[in-house]
Inverse folding.
């Protein structure tokens, strides 16, 4: 092949610009730590990266929701636990109040104790977390148990409040108070009030009936505690899944977008060596026949 | 006697031949780095011999012509490859811009904002009555509207920039066709093609190569060497010594290229202008349209749910986003400004009810017919994929085209480029020939002198 002088210079220029662009790309990878800067470098993985980031952002949000749910479920569990203990005291004091051998003064004392317990139960029913009622259904801004004309009336509704903890999976964060404190079969607050009144009136039969009703309320509380416990267990299980999934997704995303720094540095060194060699070849004065004639 | 004198005459012609040959070598060496220069060579032919009684005697040589050394096939090939390269080069920059618009490597793109927006509803479900959480939904919604607006605007700016480039390209095309027409005139004036050794032809070939990078065309040469340049469908761009200027009409939805008032846009499928027209008429509008579809579906679905809810003050939900149908990406904005107006509870429920917020955040998992049965995020990732793929295709084609061009240019330079070594050999060759001729003259002169001395 006939080689003209311009050919060697164009070749030199083409090669230099190729090596320069390799050096640019590798330097960018090393300084940013990212391999992927624009989708055209790897279109399908770029699209996958977009979806991965959405999944990661979502799982992150689910994590926040789970933490929030835990706080409220924890508060509900604690309230229900205290309530259960209070009712044990009610049974114990109630049994004492029913004893035939005690006098009315002692029954009045029991009534006063039950009044106190009533106040405690009332304040448990009106438990707030972050300023929000947890036993009021959706009426989180209203105290659910209020004394209206001498009777305790539930002010909330029967809704449970849910949050998202995974794709298409919600968990309840509260149980409406009517299902614990104000069920028709066991109207706890009014029962306690009735019990205290019965003791004050010395009506042991009435007190006995009411104590049986309160036994029903204990079943409701246990049921609610099971529901809360299940919800907590669900959040824990989901959280573990999220942790595993996050690890996988982060690894996958990193595989797509992160530069392999060691590889980048090796390649950079290689490109720089080749730049040096090319420059030296170019700088070498070409031997020309013109040098030899004349 | 007449024999010796005729030898002197022939010898004079030889000397001037060799001087001309040296001048051509000088020209070649001087143009070793001139773009588009075709090496020249002197074509020497023997002159008519004289017939004597004993036979024929040669009378030396003359320069029949100085020719440029070029291979028409390679020149044609070069033009085709330049057109192809220009076509991809015309699209490359625009496609890279589009990629940057639809994809953010810093997690600050439309998809990321879509995630944040729907997550804000999920967050709000933790406490439907919380004003800070409500405010954050509004902020993320505004962020989302901004992302769509910005993407739309940057694609709009790209379209405008690209139309400006189309105008610049057309300006360059007009300059080149004018130059080709002028050079046609020069060739007509100097008469026979190649009389000047092809320098004007070189210049015209260079102009054609430059034109090839910009636009696809056809050429026809008449017997006098005058070149006619037309578009692919035959609309003339250069006719004899006149050019027909192109103009651009950008008043409509896409740029229209006119020659003499005739729409030739469809003819232009190659060169930079071809690439820029593809961007202008197909690529950019298609991405704007997809963003419009996505923005409109997000707005419509969110609005449809939001109006079923009730706000903090017991009012029915208002449309959440406002937008212009068919142009949602550029027009989408958040229609409510007071966080209390977020209607995320089932009407009649307490403030803790977050049914609508949960349904709204659940939208991100739904697939919609308007989005080809894709979720919002999947649809956007499809846009990213297409932008990446189209850009990559153009980059790869461009890289391949550059390799091909390097080869064709090398082939052209191999045939037409100047080799200094070769010129050095020619120089020595003609120098020696000149010296020999001069020696012949010296000998004949001595012979004449001796003859004179006889008298």
């Amino acid at each position: 092949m006939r080689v003209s002088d311009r050919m060697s210079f164009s070749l030199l220029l083409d090669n230099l610009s190729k090596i320069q662009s390799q050096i640019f790309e590798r330097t960018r990878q090393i300084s940013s730590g990212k391999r992927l800067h624009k989708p055209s470098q790897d279109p399908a993985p770029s699209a996958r990266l977009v979806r991965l980031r959405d999944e990661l952002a979502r799982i992150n949000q689910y994590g926040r929701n789970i933490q929030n749910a835990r706080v409220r479920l924890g508060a509900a569990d604690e309230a229900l636990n205290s309530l259960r203990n209070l009712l044990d005291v009610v049974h114990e004091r109630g049994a004492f109040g029913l004893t035939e051998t005690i006098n009315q003064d002692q029954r009045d004392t029991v009534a006063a104790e039950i009044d106190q317990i009533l106040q405690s139960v009332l304040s448990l029913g009106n438990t707030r977390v972050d300023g929000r009622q947890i036993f009021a259904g959706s009426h989180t801004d209203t105290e659910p148990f209020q004394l209206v004309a001498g009777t305790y009336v539930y002010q909330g509704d029967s809704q449970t409040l849910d949050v998202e903890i995974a794709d298409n999976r919600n968990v309840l964060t509260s149980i409406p108070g009517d299902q614990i404190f104000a069920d028709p079969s066991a109207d706890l607050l009014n029962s306690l009030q009735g019990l205290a009144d019965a003791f004050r009136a010395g009506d042991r039969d009435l007190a006995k009936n009411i104590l049986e009703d309160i036994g029903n309320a204990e079943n409701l509380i246990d049921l609610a505690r099971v529901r809360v416990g299940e919800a907590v267990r669900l959040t824990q299980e989901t959280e573990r899944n999220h942790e595993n999934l996050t690890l996988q997704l982060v690894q996958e995303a990193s595989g797509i977008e992160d530069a392999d720094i060691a590889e980048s540095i090796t390649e950079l060194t290689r490109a720089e060596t080749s730049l040096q060699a090319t420059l030296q070849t170019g700088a070498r004065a070409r031997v020309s026949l013109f040098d030899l004639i004349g | 006697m007449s024999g010796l004198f005729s030898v002197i005459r022939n010898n004079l012609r030889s000397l001037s031949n060799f001087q001309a040959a040296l001048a051509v070598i000088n020209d070649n060496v001087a143009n070793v780095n001139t773009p588009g220069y075709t090496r020249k060579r002197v074509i020497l032919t023997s002159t008519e011999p004289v017939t004597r009684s004993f036979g024929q005697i040669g009378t030396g040589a003359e320069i029949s012509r100085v020719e440029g050394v070029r291979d028409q096939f390679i020149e044609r090939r070069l033009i085709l490859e330049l057109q192809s390269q220009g076509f991809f080069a015309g699209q490359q920059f625009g496609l890279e811009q589009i990629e940057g618009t639809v994809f953010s490597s810093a997690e600050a793109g439309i998809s990321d904002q879509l995630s944040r927006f729907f997550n804000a509803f999920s967050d709000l479900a933790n406490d439907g009555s919380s004003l800070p959480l409500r405010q954050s939904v509004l902020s993320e919604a505004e962020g989302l509207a901004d992302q769509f607006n910005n993407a739309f605007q940057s694609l709009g700016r790209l379209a405008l920039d690209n139309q400006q480039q189309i105008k610049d390209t057309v300006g360059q095309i007009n300059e080149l066709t004018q130059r080709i027409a002028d050079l046609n005139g020069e060739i007509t004036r100097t008469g026979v093609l190649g009389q000047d050794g092809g320098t004007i032809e070189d210049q015209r070939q260079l102009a054609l190569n430059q034109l090839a990078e910009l636009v696809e065309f056809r050429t026809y040469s008449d017997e006098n060497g005058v070149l006619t340049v037309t578009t692919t469908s035959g609309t003339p761009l250069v006719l004899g010594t006149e050019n027909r200027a192109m103009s651009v009409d950008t008043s409509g939805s896409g740029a229209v290229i006119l020659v003499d008032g005739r729409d030739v846009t469809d003819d232009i499928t190659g060169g930079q202008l071809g690439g820029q027209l593809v961007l202008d008429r197909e690529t950019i509008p298609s991405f704007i349209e997809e963003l419009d579809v996505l923005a409109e579906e997000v707005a419509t679905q969110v609005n449809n749910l939001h109006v079923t809810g009730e706000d903090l003050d017991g009012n029915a939900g208002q449309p959440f986003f406002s937008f212009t149908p068919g142009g949602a990406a550029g027009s989408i904005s958040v229609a409510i400004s007071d966080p209390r107006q977020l209607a995320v509870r089932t009407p009649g429920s307490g403030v803790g009810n977050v049914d609508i917020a949960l349904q709204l955040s659940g939208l991100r998992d739904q697939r919609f017919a308007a989005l080809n049965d894709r979720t919002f995020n999947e649809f956007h990732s499809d846009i990213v994929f297409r932008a990446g793929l189209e850009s990559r295709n153009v980059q790869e084609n461009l890289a391949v085209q550059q390799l091909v061009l390097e080869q064709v240019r090398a082939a052209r330079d191999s045939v037409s480029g100047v080799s200094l070594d070769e010129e050095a050999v020619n120089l020595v060759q003609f120098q020696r020939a000149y010296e020999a001729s001069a020696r012949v003259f010296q000998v004949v002169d001595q012979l004449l002198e001796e003859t004179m001395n006889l008298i």
Q: What stands out?
A: The longest helix of chain A spans residues 43-98. The two ends of chain A are 27 Å apart (CA to CA).
